[in-house]
Amino acid sequence: MSTPHEVVQDYYGRQLTATEDLKSTACCDASRTPAWLRALLGNIHPEVLSRYYGCGLVCPPLLEGCRVLDLGCGTGRDAYALSQLVGPRGEVLGVDMTEEQLAVAERHRAYHAERFGYANVRFERGFIEKLEALDLPPASFDVIVSNCVVNLSPDKPAVLKQVVRLLKPGGEFYFADVYADRRVPAAVRDDPVLYGECLGGALYWNDFLRLARAAGFADPRLVEDRPIALCDAELAARLEPIRFFSATWRLFRLEGLEDACEDHGQAVVYRGSIASCPARFDLDKHHRIESGRVFPVCGNTFRMLSESRFGPHFELIGDFSRHYGLFAGCDGGLPFDTEGPAAAGSGCC
Ligand SMILES: C[S@@+](CC[C@H](N)C(=O)[O-])C[C@H]1O[C@@H](n2cnc3c(N)ncnc32)[C@H](O)[C@@H]1O
């Protein structure tokens, strides 16, 4: 009986030889590659590109000079794209447990160093649940990314624990993964092909939120998502009626984030000073902040923008000295009925 790690190593190390071998779009959807990324990919070796198995984009803005860790880097497509974004003052470390994947990544290190004009990428073999084995200093990464990997881990809380340990305060885990609209039954989870295809191990999205909060990420932010198409009819029939989605979340390692969006009367103004997005800064799916406009924010968003690498790019209005209740527009709201005797002025009882 193989362990989940062995199933995955076999699938990515021996069974798949190219992106086209996949049976769903859980990993890979080339149609969504934006122009800026296509330019970066144009500099990457074809063999690396041909064995890309990611499911989303893991390149947040403002990476220049950052130290980035890629969990489950595979053959290194994202690591080499990130290498160009962090530049010569930055550094990218890719970690993967599958020898064959890493061999491809390693084989082309010199090619990319020559092409970019600097060498800032390295790879290490390891398990993302056990990163202490790699002797990485705590709080040493500005950004941790991962593309279609966490679903494959048999111990997801351990992965998040490592992320918390390795992120600098104010740093973020920015990662794409596969989620289900419900808890995946054992028959799906235990099928090696469905597991390898990043479907069997996918978390029910609400369980992911619970897990993230338990790990210390009080306010996970959804950046983008898309439904996954199951191109193989037989596979689709076995999965009915579960729906799967690819989603990118960003989890900031910040003290003081609350479990709800609280209104302290604060606002921000984006200065338009990030070169890759002068007109608008997208924090997440619900916070698309136009340059120059006063944008009211809850306390958590205020902290994410002011206490992270984005701070210098925002004018900050207000502080935490007053509280006005729950931030309007966020999920939930006042749980109490506002209609009834008290509202009509009858006081107590
Ligand atoms: C779907 S592929 C994605 C690879 C890469 N991120 C990409 O976008 O091409 C999953 C990768 O995660 C690696 N992986 C899965 N579970 C892992 C674990 N527990 N520790 C380290 N690597 C893991 C696999 O070896 C494989 O290379």
Question: Helices and strands in order, then pairings?
Answer:
Blueprint: H1 4-15, H2 35-41, H3 46-50, E1 67-71, H4 77-86, E2 91-96, H5 99-107, H6 109-116, E3 121-125, E4 141-147, H7 156-166, E5 167-180, H8 186-189, H9 192-196, E6 203-204, H10 205-215, E7 221-227, H11 233-239, E8 244-252, E9 266-270, E10 280-284, E11 287-290, E12 294-297, H12 299-306, E13 314-317
The structure holds S-adenosylmethionine (SAM).
S-adenosylmethionine (SAM) is lined by residues 5, 8, 12, 27, 52-54, 72-74, 77-78, 96-98, 101, 127-129, 147-149, 152-153, 198.
Beta strand %: 15-25%
Number of helices: 12
Our measurement of the CA-to-CA distance between the termini, rounded to an integer number of angstroms, reads 66 Å
Q: Which bin fits the share of residues in helices?
A: 25-40%
Distinct small molecules:
S-adenosylmethionine
Structural class estimated from helices and strands:
alpha/beta
CATH architecture verdict of the largest domain:
3-Layer(aba) Sandwich
For the record, the count of structural domains works out to 2
Report the radius of gyration as a whole number of Å.
22 Å
N-to-C order of helices and strands: HHHEHEHHEEHEHHEHEHEEEEEHE
**Oligomeric status:** single chain
- Average pLDDT reading: 92
Tally of DSSP β-strands = 13
